[in-house]
Design brief:
InterPro entries: NAD(P)-bd_dom_sf, Sc_DH/Rdtase_CS, SDR_fam. The protein is α/β, with parallel strands linked by helices and 264 residues long. The protein is built from seven helices and nine strands, in the order E-H-E-E-H-E-H-E-E-E-H-E-H-H-H-E. A seven-stranded parallel beta sheet has the order 3-2-1-4-7-8-9, with helices on both faces.
């Protein structure tokens, strides 16, 4: 009998898999026996993924380009068991952001998620539904045709001062998740909403904020208010994402799971 959450024989696609949360997801899935296909805009493979036979990486993959998304998914042979939409962007906007930042944020966070997920949903729709044995002897799980996990944010659920475009984009990703879950009941489509997380993207966002910017005060206050007393590690978020990909979540779809150390 395989242990719970074994991904032996499963194939999962991960966008943004060369850094941050996406990298943590990739490493976790590989440790659980999955074959992982990574799409990333990065021009280089991170050291942590070099030499892994079960990791296949497409570099310089722009998720805002539908043809690039089609080509990436077409490179995955056989069954596509899951997709993690982890690629995203954020930057301090201030009280009045620029059109450039707004359009770029929406393009990556929303259009990129739309492109990759709609391509994956079309492919998964042609696949057979599968069943797997449950933990209790004799029990069966209907795993379905595949699982998609979108990475949202605490900003999917509330407004964030100084991050209007980012907040709008993450609200949109939650809306897509809930609609797709209804439109494609043979698949599972869920969203993980991380709170403040230690990633290169967060570090770059903080560095890019000017001294005295009110958004910095908001960010500092947010971290200080986390009951757990720290930001999340990328692996904390990866654990939640892997749960949604696993057989253990076989009857969960259209849901948003905040992973934020207790913030309400």
């Amino acid at each position: 009998m395989q242990p719970p959450k074994s991904f032996a024989g499963r194939q999962i696609a991960v966008t943004g898999g060369c850094s941050g949360i996406g990298l943590a997801v990739t490493r976790t899935l590989v440790a659980l026996g999955a074959t992982v296909y990574v799409a990333d805009i990065s021009p280089r493979i991170p050291d942590e993924l070099k030499g892994h036979g079960n990791v296949h990486i497409t570099l310089l993959c722009d998720i805002t380009d539908r043809i690039a998304c089609q080509s990436f998914l077409a490179s995955i042979p056989g069954r596509l068991d899951g997709l993690v939409n982890s690629a995203g962007t954020a930057r301090w906007e201030g009280r009045v952001g620029t059109d450039e930042v707004f359009h770029r944020t929406m393009d990556i966070n929303v259009t990129g998620t739309w492109n990759m997920a709609t391509e994956a949903l079309a492919r998964m729709s042609t696949q057979k539904e599968i069943e797997a044995s449950g933990i209790v002897s004799g029990s069966i799980r209907s795993v379905g045709k595949g699982s998609i996990v979108n990475v949202g944010s605490g900003a999917s659920l509330r407004g964030v001062s100084g991050l209007a475009a980012y907040t709008a984009s993450k609200h949109a990703v939650l809306g897509l998740t809930r609609s797709w879950a209804r439109d494609f009941p043979q698949m599972r489509v869920n969203l993980v909403a991380p709170g403040a997380t230690e990633t290169p993207l967060v570090a770059a966002t903080l560095v890019g904020a000017p001294v005295g910017d009110p958004s910095v005060d908001v960010g500092v206050a947010q971290v200080a208010s986390i009951p757990k007393g720290r930001m999340a590690y990328a692996t904390d978020i990866a654990d939640a994402i892997v749960f949604f990909l696993s057989d253990e979540s076989s009857f969960i779809t259209g849901q948003c799971l905040p992973v934020n150390g207790g913030m309400v």
